[in-house]
Amino acid sequence: MTALHTKRKITMTTQWRAFKTSRRIHAEVMLLYIIVCQYGCSEGVAETATGSNITVKVGESITFPFSAEGNQSYTADLLFKTFTIVTWIPPQFIHVREQYKGRVSIGNHSIWLNNSRLSDSGLYQVKTKYRSGGFKPPEYKYFHLQVFEPVSKPNITAECLGSNVSLSCFSSQGTAVTYSWETLPPCGNDSSVHLGQAIYLQLHSLSPPTTYTCTAHNPVSRATSDSVDLEMCFPQRSQVRWVPALCATSAFLVFGALVLLYKRKQHQQYQRETIQVEVD
User: Fold this and answer.
1) Residues 231/198, Cβ–Cβ less than 8 Å
2) C-alpha distance from residue 245 to each of 166, 240, 252, 254 (Å)
3) By the 8 A CB rule, do 50 and 139 touch?
4) Residue 260: its pLDDT value, please?
5) Is 82 helix (H, G, I), strand (E, B) or coil?
6) Which of 150, 216, 221, 278 is 20 to 30 A from 116, alpha carbon to alpha carbon?
């Protein structure tokens, strides 16, 4: 009896612990669900809304349009990250956050953020909350803003190591800059394009001269460098080009000297023959 009683007690204790564990897990799941719904369910629209993408240069103005139904009174808020930039209760009440004063304009169903800065990039919301006409949930419009600094004219630097040549391109200004190269051969108009900030070449002194230009660009601007060739890497190339011309010139001079000597000899011989005839 004692062993049986002990066995039953152990079995009941195990079942009770399993039941308590199950209840604790269920309670934790329910608590997690409540927390998620509190902070996530009401804002689920933000995850599913695609919004509008806006791309501007530094210093430009951004327009955030919104709409309101009928003639109901409403409040319009422009929100960025976790704070409100401006609250507008038409027609007169406007409250602008201190750090944005002088940069916000408001018109008919539009809010403008002027003199844009790089730090303004991010997700914006325009929240429209109705104050009349019965209960109605707020409306949200989402805007994904990207502010870019325009690129400056890039410069090319060349490093010559024998037949290995590296070309690098750099633009001193610009946000999210990408680079591309264009090469144009001396004859014809067929150019080729290379991507990247640097390119590496293997050339020799007899390679045909090729012009290289670099272009820096981002979503709001582009600029192209001055063109360069690689004569600086092959100073002997100019000497090599003069050799055929020098040889041809020398040959022409020698040939001309021989012709002059031949004609002079003929002239002298003619004069001797003329003098001999007169004596006879």
Assistant:
1) no
2) 32, 10, 11, 14
3) no
4) 74
5) coil
6) 216
Q: Supply 14's token pair.
A: 């195990």
Is 178 exposed, middle or buried (CB count within 10 Å of its CB: 0-12, 13-18, 19+)?
A: middle
Query: CA dihedral in degrees (70, 75, 81, 82; nearest 10)?
Result: -140
What does DSSP assign to residue 3?
H
pLDDT in tens, 102-111: 999 998 889 9
Neighbouring C-beta atoms of residue 112, cutoff 10 Å: 16
Written as six digits, the tokens of 156 are 């090319």
Q: What is the pLDDT of residue 252?
A: 59
Q: What is the pLDDT at residue 270?
A: 60
Q: Is the pLDDT of residue 47 over 50?
A: no
Angle (CA) 219-223-227 rounded to 5° is: 145
Which run of H or of E encompasses 228?
none
Strand order in the sheet with 211-218: 192-195, 178-184, 211-218, 221-224
pTM exceeds cut of 0.85: no
Distance CA(82)–CA(84), nearest Å, equals: 7
pLDDT value of position 69: 78
Q: If you search the block for the tokens 């409403």, which residue do you land on?
A: 74
Question: Rg of the chain over CA atoms, in angstroms?
Answer: 42
More confident residue, 49 or 213: 213
Whether residue 165 is predicted with pLDDT greater than 50 in this model: the reply is: yes
The strand pair at 52-57 and 139-148 is best described as: parallel
